[in-house]
């Protein structure tokens, strides 16, 4: 009897009807003869409602108490799903992260999983139960409740799949799978049947909000097949798996757009060793994540440095950067909020040349000016003017023939 | 430094403003130099909302999953209260029943406390924290989450006061204390400064819904002073304590009205030993609580038996009673939903005679007919027609001069 871990996100359990629908799917899988562990997120808006309550009480809630508060969201949904499954005549039992024994470090609101005890889950499975586990939460060795931060429920699911040696991990969401581009931007975007861990990792970090990187990394490390599927239909979804020969035949798997970054430029930075290091150390010390970095030498003794940060970090970054710029004797600091980052990803790039020139060609043909370029083994990113972002995505998507066949 | 356990009910923490108000009160007590353990119920309507969700999913939710679900209510309120206290610059930490180590038996939705670990609470107190404990919940030795049933949060508070050897247990609610009668029925009802455990136990079981009997019993057993006070003002409230000489000087402490019972009469029961036992055993076996019982002999060989049950149990009781009546060869069964039970309570009755006749006299003067009478050492109960219930309360309250002095 094979074990499958399923995970249902908040939109899949947003209300009583949807919870019943999830229960039906779980029961179907159970009746096919699988053992099932089901990880659930909080109901739809529960987490937002809880955060609003906390914000009503204090502007700066302690992270420990936030975890205490937010972990109730998943506890509610697991209890309700267990009831809904029992209503269909199938044995089910819900467990908190605490009860499972999902041990984490002590960093509240962003804890990392250290270890997962399997005793209680295995015992419940042996007794014939569907085991419903609260996602997103764990506990410390001091019996404190922790939460895992963004994408925490996916992480719970993949980590459980690992420790339980599950055959697969199925992530149910409100989209049909992973697409060659965001269908809202590129109407003929095509659903991918398979994608490699490496590609999805690049896509996730590039702004295609499918799954958080942390859970993919665990899947990759332990070679756990992850299926991303819709909880609202029975389409097969997308399988995230290790790289295969066949994948390499495909040049590009997807095009991603990220409109959440802003560009910062420091003009006239003294061109001597250690200056860039100094600037980016100050940013790192202030917990500001920097994405792309480029440096253009303009004068003999001075250079310009540009980099991108998340828009939400921009005002904080600016304060820090201005201080850093003064410290190294730079001329001035400029910011540009109106940028978009367009990226293509594909393991095929490793063994094919000419991808970059095809991208630049497509953008030139679409009359889109490129402001910054950054490349890795399986990725090319271009920063363009914000107003050209969507056009750039469509141009590249078309140039690499990623769309659905016309004959449908 | 003396330790005080405070308990705030759902109406005291119904919204963000009220939570902040409770935080202020807690901080005031803390600044007076007390160590504080604060037990909190779920926010206002949370429990009802959770029950509605469960009922949306299934008509018959498993009790284990109900506990999983409902225990989140208190977890939310303790986290929010801890945040609100921290916002006022005072150290606070919230703990679930699970984290405290409130060990219970395995009877979900109505668990009994077996033991409470004090290590974690004491450690948190030593570290200077106000310790906020989720009421109403505990865990079994198998790490299952349980809830304590009605009045569970009061029970948590009194039991914690016991194991922590607290100086007092303060129950904050939405009324000013315990009154000689329900002020909605008797406008000049007077708040009592003190009342004995015995009296409040009788009042609780007689329908004056102040506190559940279970927590009073614990208070009585371990001689823990319990203050019932309003969380909305600073009036002193009522102290529940052991009987004193002074209390015995007062004939009657309070008059209670219970409109939740119905009367069942079995006519023509064969008058031989063991018949009544048989009938009430069948009721007990079916988990139907019987309150007052009277038996009137009408013929030589037969008798009539009347008793009262909760209205909510009436239809179930009727089915059972009709079966029982047939089994013993009775004539017929009659029910009366339209009754009210009026009771007076006072430890002074023990040493004073003439209380019963004063009650009957007051009712006669008010032209209220008495249908059933039941007495104990410190209580007299009369069943009257439902439409006379309130009038009867007022008549007795006046006869015993329980109201406020006119000169105010």
Percent range for β-strand residues of chain A: 25-35%
> Strand order within the widest sheet of chain A?
3-6-2-1-9-11-12-10
Tell me the structural class of chain A: alpha/beta
The low-confidence parts of chain A are: none
Span of the ends, CA to CA of chain A: 39 Å
Question: How much helical structure, as a percent, in the residues of chain A?
Answer: 25-40%
Shape descriptor of chain A reads globular
- Any idea what the radius of gyration of chain A is? 23 Å
DSSP summary, beta strand count of chain A = 20
Mean pLDDT of chain A: 91
Tell me about the biggest sheet of chain A? 8 strands, mixed
Task: Give a structural overview.
- Two copies of one chain form a homodimer.
- Chain A is an alpha/beta fold.
- Chain A contains 13 helices and 20 strands.
- Chain A has helices at 16-31, 46-57, 63-87, 97-100, 119-126, 152-163, 197-205, 213-222, 245-248, 275-285, 314-328, 355-365, 389-399, and strands at 3-8, 35-40, 92-95, 102-104, 113-116, 130-134, 137-139, 145-147, 168-173, 194-196, 226-230, 238-241, 254-258, 261-270, 290-297, 302-310, 332-336, 339-345, 370-376, 379-385.
- In chain A, the strands form five sheets. Chain A has an eight-stranded mixed sheet with strand order 3-6-2-1-9-11-12-10, with helices on both faces. In chain A, strands 13-18-20-19 form a four-stranded antiparallel sheet, with helices on both faces. The first copy, chain A, has a four-stranded antiparallel sheet with strand order 15-16-14-17, covered by helices on one side.
- In chain A, strand 15 and strand 16 form a beta hairpin.
- In chain A, helix 1 (16-31) crosses helix 3 (63-87), helix 2 runs antiparallel to helix 3 (63-87) and helix 10 runs antiparallel to helix 11 (314-328).
- The longest helix of chain A is centred in the N-terminal third of the chain and has 25 residues, at 63-87.
- Chain A is globular.
- The first copy, chain A, starts with a strand and ends in a 9-residue tail after the last helix.
- Chain A binds chain B through residues 16, 19-20, 50, 53-54, 56-62, 64-66, 68-69, 71-72, 75-76, 78-80, 82-84, 86-87, 93-94, 96, 98-99, 120, 143, 145, and chain B through 16, 19-20, 50, 53-54, 56-62, 64-66, 68-69, 71-72, 75-76, 78-80, 82-84, 86-87, 93-94, 96, 98-99, 120, 143, 145.
